[in-house]
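## Example record

The block below lists the input lines for one assembly entry, exactly as stored, with component labels intact.
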Amino acid sequence: MTDVVDLGDIRGADAGQVGPKMARLGQLAADGWRVPDGYAVTAAALDGWLPAPARAELARLFTGPATGHRDAGHRELAERAARARALVESQPLPAQLQDAVAAAHARLAARTGRQDALRVAVRSSAVSEDGHAASFAGQYETYLGVSGVDDVLRHVRKCWASGFSAHALSYRRRFGGPGPAGTEPVRVHDLAVGVLELVDARSAGVAFTLDPVTGDRGVCVVEGNWGFGESVVNGHVTPDHWTVDRAAGQVRTARVGTKLTWAAVNPASGRVGLSPLPDDLVGAACLTDDEVRYICERATAIEAAAGGVPQDVEWTVARGLPFPDSVYFLQHRPETTWSASRGSSSETGAESGSVTIPAPATGEPAFDPVRYALRNVFKVPGT
Amino acid sequence: MPGDSPRVFPVDEFVKEELYPGYRQAFGSQPFVAGPVRPFSSRDNERYWLRDSLHFSEGMVPASIATLDDAQTWGAQLGAEIVGVPPTRGSVNRLAGTHVYIGTIDVDTQWQVQARAARFGAYVSPVLADFGSYWTMRAGELQAAYEHFDNLDLSVMTVPELWAALRDAYAFHRRAWFIHFEVMYVLTANYLAFYALAEEIGLSGSQVSSFLSGQQTFYSRTDEELWRLAGLAKSLGLEAALTTGSASDMRARVRALPHGASWTASFDSFLAAYGQRLEETCRIDTPSWAEDPSPALYSIGAFLAKPAGFDFHAARAAAVAERDAQIEAARRAVNGENLARFNAALASNQAANFAWWNEEHNYLIDRRAAIPVRRATLELGARLAADGQITDPTDMFYLFKPELFAVMAQDAGASWAELRAMVPDRRAYFEYWRERGPSLPPMLGTIPDTVPDPIMIEVFGLSGRFLETMRGETPADGPAGAAVTEVRGFPAAKGVVEGVARVITTVGDLHLVEPGEILVCGGTTTEWTPAFGIIAACVCDTGGSLTHAAIVSREYGIPCVVGTAIATRVVKTGDRVRVDGRAGTVTVMAP
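Predicted structure tokens for the full assembly:
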């Protein structure tokens, strides 16, 4: 496989190169679903990326006598992680890889017809991410609203460097995986990066092909908010919530959530960030009943194509397109995998077996006290 | 009263240049993050100041002002800087006479808030990811220091060696208080995130601390040991001697009785393990339990005096069962994504539990960190008194640390004669202000509508309602309108009881509380804990969900309302009152 692959050339079997997330998206596209177009930088291309001096410096940072010990100071870990990230982000990608990304980006700009106005999402796609109990969910970053090849290259490096956050390293120390004390200190992760056209989201969210709380497979559950899906998958809002009777294809319950923020394009920076939800959207449901039923029907079809294993599906309704062409699917995952990983990644085990809500793929754990405190206790704008 | 001019309780009466007669702070004498303990100045009318009777009920002697400087002032300011708490740069203190008022330093520009928020995230995330190891390391550091200081044989040291030991003790004290605030800000953020989440998902934030209760702490073990000693006394027929007469000669009287010596031997081994605690934070002029066990004896007497007895294990088991039932009820009330968030927040708070740490750190820091300073100070004072430099070893408490350090270092211009001469005036000054303590206003300066520092809200109880009550107060004459019959506060522990009120303004009067009474006070600290075994309910002027009274009431299963602002002035001892710990109301019943 080449270093950079167009989405149209990616199939489900390519998970080992581009990560399961991008592999499934490629398969969806091949099966004729509306998905955002894009390309992937393979894990293999990035694995050989760092030049030898940078590798040596990383090895020094994470295998020194002080940090080799399990009880190395947290502050020191944080400092070393920050230095590692800065080091990784500062390394230019090999010229050959830069050229390949530039070429793929030009092809994408042409296919979408957007040319220079193309805005993309740069998403980490860990090769091991979905399959393991302690899956490092939420340890890697996603960047929305990136434009231009230079910016894309910079964010590819940032995605890769995000594996060096103190949080991620600490998480690895607790749940295993090669860490600071491991035998392979430098290659801390097997990460591909996906670059996808940013769909101009009017509304977005997730759908489950069973009730994730009760396990009832007679219903689909749809949750969503206005704007991009990050506000839903990262838990920034209590989303709108629908249950749909699968057999009858009818909406059984509808509850409008307390949505006070949304993820939207900041006109100044062109990037997607959280901001207060405009007054006219507060209290308004983000989907019509037709859209809800359609999303459930499609999610059910994805489940059937996945061998009948319950799925959770991320969807987006694009602005300015006629229904149902407006409905895009960004990714899907087997729901049961997530149920199991939730239980075993829990600190206390107190909730094992009773919680079947999937964790977000590229967001945070179900609840991050630090982010929540900054946002809802200290009320720091923009957090 | 929106639209009214701001409410000001003038500080003018307390404005001074000197902290104590003959002591004016030298500029830059202390390397402060934001500002040392100072007397009030007229500019202080522009900000709010809360009387910290929670920690310091009786006033500070000069030597304890150095330990206060380390603790609530410097420690809080450095902790807030290091952790990067976004809305506050920590607390700052003023003295009205000898009494401590606390204010906060708000961060008031957006850039600083953002910069601090970034620091906060980077600092707190890894700590919360593995709080167990983090705290074990800090607690180990503190224990190692105590082992060092406890094993020093001060009696064989020369004066220069004693002075070095005192400097060590001060250095350790400062370090201990930095640890205190570093950890406290981290844990408070974790707790407050859970609190806000609970409110967001339709639970009550006031429930959150009950979800975290029922943990064994050093102080609950202390109480349990006291309870055991009470049981032992009962079985040995020593009850009468422990419930009557004054505490000062109680031990001698008990020892003289049949079986008395075996009981006092048990009591002494208790003191060896649990006696390293001062009566108040930073108060190096107060003895530890090991030196004067009266508070422990009082506690034992209180357990013996409760008519129905008190079953410690049953109370614990009930508190744990109640906690688990509340958690289960909460889990049933939320679903979907919110249940996952609730569970994750609960797990984070179980692993890094403020309610548990609040008691545990009192033993390791608040009540203990100043003991090495006290011991070295008194031993040095004994030598100096023998040499005639001072009159009495306790004169040392009336010297400011910079004065003592200057004279010990033989700085030009420092003389024992000058210092010695000031001591009588300073003793009188302390006594004068001690008498005035109970009548000082709970707040001074300009009462704000809200305070941005969540720690001031949850620990000190400066809620919007508390501030509103304060704005309705007349400065000197107690509550506006004489016929107040209901006060409202934070519902800290559920349950409804009616009973006779006992208003207590200083921990020294705690022995006046009779079994079954309702304790009404400014606020409680660890020293008040024994009373919770005998009272029917607790009501405090100050406090929020994280204060001592709230936490301990839940452990003892009694109703508690905190942060009422005015309960000690509305309720009189002997009033019949009804406390509703779920509604947060205290009603004075018609006679």
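The first strand of chain B starts at residue 7 and ends at 9. Residues 326 and 411 of chain B are 62 Å apart (CA to CA).
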